[in-house]
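#lab-general

N.A. 3:47 PM
ok so I finally got the sequence cleaned up, no stray characters, all 503 residues accounted for. can someone with queue access submit it? mine expired

B.Y. 3:52 PM
send it over

N.A. 3:53 PM
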Amino acid sequence: MNTYRKFRLFTTILPIILLLTLLPWSEARSLSVPRTVVTPSAEITPINPAASREAADLLSYLSDLGGLGMVSGQHDYLESPDEFNNKLKQDSGEYAALHGYELGPINNQPQKTIAKQRQNVVNSAIKWHKNGGIVVMTYHQSLPGTAPSWANVQMSLSQEEFDPYVTPGTPQYKRLIADIDEIAGYLEQLRDADVPVLWRPYHEMNGDWFWWGGKSNFVKLWDIMYNRLTGVHKLNNLLWVWNPNAPNEWSDEYEPYFPGTGKVDILAADIYNNDYKQSYYEKLLKLADGKPIGIGESGELPDPKVLSQTQNKWVYTMTWGKMLHENNDLQQIKNFMNNHYIVSRNDYIKQLAARPVTSAAAPRTGLTGQYYSNPDLSGTPVLIRNDATIDFNWRGDSPAAGIGKDSFSVRWSGKITPSYSEEYTFTASSDDGVRVYIGGKLVIDSWKKQSGVSHKGSIRLTAGTAYDIKVEYFENRGDASIRLMWKSKSQKPAVISKTAFSY
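B.Y. 4:20 PM
back already:
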């Protein structure tokens, strides 16, 4: 962190130079408006002291962006998590940097369908992050204990009816916790894949159209979710976005529902009907007290020229689903995405590449994977990357660009730290060969052609001790897969999560 502070001035000046060098000499992206560079008075850090490095880096980027540009964003629905994001790319030639996803089912679909749709969202979000984009998650939660329908998201609830949901021990509170725990399972997958998430729960709480809206003790609901997801589920990849509606004739002012700067990472406002009033911006900016602010939802694309001159501390905006085309014509979309002030995904990737790397005292989670284009781990790896877990089913596909679908090998290495002092049994299921070393000891050795076979090996480990781990794998031909699990008297059988690995 000391190194980061030393480069603070450098990171303020560098994005200006970078943005200038990235601009094509064309009318659409010419520098037509002045910019005001604002240096934050203090370093902005996540409210969660255990926040992941990825989450902290994303917050740092957004904090530094104010006055320099605005990240573009596009939302998609639970049922089709890539539809409008892809249409935006087709329309403009550029992907938005920020991709909004939905985890709340609203069509009264069966639980099996909900699980499949949520998994599709998670898979898309992981892929989006790996391809260099920013992930935002929205959760339209039905009233706990009711069917997953839009009517139950918008259920009218009096203050007296709402109170039991934020009162520990009541049946309503238990149903709320059950819903939070269910959604946590999907967010945990994103955590384990090192995906930082802009998490915007219970948005538009200053209106009365959702069951959580217009409540005098809304902050209790916010605290319950924060404590559950952070304290119990250890979702340290989340950046907490407090996102009211712009205060207008349908919604209250911001302040009565604000948890405080100590409980939010980012503040955002939902703005519709092209109603980008200066008062919405200035009130939120004052409340943020130096923290980043964004436009959480909009129907009409904002005018970059106007915002860059009068509201330049907005750091991102997100167009809501099908309103991309319902509220904007093709030329507006092209002009917006190709404006010099708007950060596309390509712009974001280039900006990140130019930011200085900070020193880190803590080890990274996961393992280092070295991928070879031959079956015997020889020569120079084609690819070296961080893998959160060893749980892959490539079937007949290649594991990565530049590697064939047959005759390849992988070596994963790092540390593994158990939680209990007892004998652990490791299970490696593979197609084809596999070897597993723990603390220098070969515990599984099956280096041969085989199809979907599991092998086990046991070793006694001490809680809190970091042991060297090395896993080697080769693929011959046909399907390719590898999974590493462990169990002990106290550890249920499970794929080894990234939090047990470090490198």
